[in-house]
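re: that chain from earlier
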Amino acid sequence: MHISESTEVITDTGYQGLKKIHNKTEMPKKKSKKNPLTLKDKKRNHELSSKRTLNEHVIGRIKRFKIVADKYRNRRKRFGLRFNLIAAICNFELAAM
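^ sequence. v structure.
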């Protein structure tokens, strides 16, 4: 996977290894028993999660169509077309709001 150096990446803690590969990666700080989060860390985590909210909602909309949530059982040649149609429906719904 190649990510442009100019791209800012905001992820959750599931992508911890990405920070070693890409310099402009932001992710929330994790707490541990020995190192609880400070108020500053909690505030920063909250800011990062609010930036990611829109993307997470779009991913959730696409998953409702089950094209990414389940195994795709149709012809692979048409996957791109179907995915683009579903993305267009999601974009149309977002524009109507």
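Strands lie at 9-10, 25-26.
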